[in-house]
Write a structure and sequence with these properties.
- The structure is a single chain.
- With 225 residues, this protein is mainly alpha-helical.
- It folds into 2 domains: 145 residues, Ribonuclease III domain (Ribonuclease iii, N-terminal Endonuclease Domain, Chain A); 66 residues, Double Stranded RNA Binding Domain (2-Layer Sandwich), CATH 3.30.160.20.
- Helix content is 56%, strand content 11%.
- It contains 10 helices and 3 strands, in the order H-H-H-H-H-H-H-H-H-E-E-E-H.
- It has a 3-stranded antiparallel β-sheet.
- It starts with 11 loop residues before the first helix and ends with a helix.
- The model has no long low-confidence stretch (mean pLDDT 88).
Length: 225
């Protein structure tokens, strides 16, 4: 079985596009219909859905925040490049001369992007169920490894940011308003703002601890403790 045959995509043109880097397309516009960037965009969304579904089934008792942390630890350049290497996708990517000369076929960013594009091509060609069957055995080992992921329940900043993004489609801003004491024993006061409005204030022995305190207080005030 050849490598291409191991990818369940019955549309050879679509698979060829998924494996075409922008640098190749720019140099060979007459030889191909496009590069893989749009398929990469689609594949990223498909991977998010597949991994979210798998995590919900594997960790049914975890909170949305914990599941989001796990997904972020799985759908990222490092992991996707690793999955792409499992398929030896680097040997199939069509690259421009400059990118090829600089070792582009082994660059994690390029391999990860090509893997996402291949997932997008499988989805378009075969549908979601087949795309899920394709991705699941590849990423299953990484999901098992994620069981040991340190999910910090005291990370109030992450939890507050998730709440703000969901409600306001923006991110909170932290601002130091005072520093009191000598360098080795300072106390910091920090406010957290959302859309320019101060939501709460926190105090701590470091900027990070003060930010966590401000986020914790903000969560308490919005009933999301």
């Amino acid at each position: 079985m050849t490598l291409k045959n191991s990818i369940p995509c019955s549309d050879p043109g679509l698979l060829r596009q998924a494996l075409t880097h922008k640098s190749f397309f720019v140099e060979n516009r007459g030889e191909c219909s496009g590069d893989n960037e749009k398929l990469e965009f689609l594949g990223d969304a498909v991977l998010d859905l597949v991994v979210s579904d798998l995590l919900l089934k594997r960790f049914p008792l975890e909170s949305e925040g914990d599941l989001s942390q796990r997904r972020s630890g799985l759908v990222n350049e490092t992991i996707l490049a690793c999955l792409g290497k499992k398929l030896d996708i680097g040997s199939l990517i069509r690259l421009g001369r400059g990118e090829m000369a600089s070792g582009g076929a082994s660059k994690p960013r390029i391999v990860a992007s090509a893997f996402e594009a291949v997932v997008g091509a499988v989805f378009l060609s075969e549908g979601y169920a087949r795309a899920c069957e394709f991705v699941t055995p590849l990423i299953d080992e990484k999901i098992e490894e994620s069981k040991s992921l340190d999910l910090n329940p005291e990370d109030f900043k992450t939890r507050f940011q998730e709440w703000v993004q969901k409600k306001y489609k923006t991110t909170p801003v932290y601002e130091v308003i005072s520093e009191v004491g000598q360098d080795h024993e300072k106390t910091f006061s920090v406010v957290v703002k959302v859309l320019g409005e101060v939501k709460s204030e926190g105090v701590g022995k470091s900027k990070k601890s003060a930010e966590q305190a401000a986020a914790k207080k903000a969560l308490s005030e919005v009933g999301n403790e």
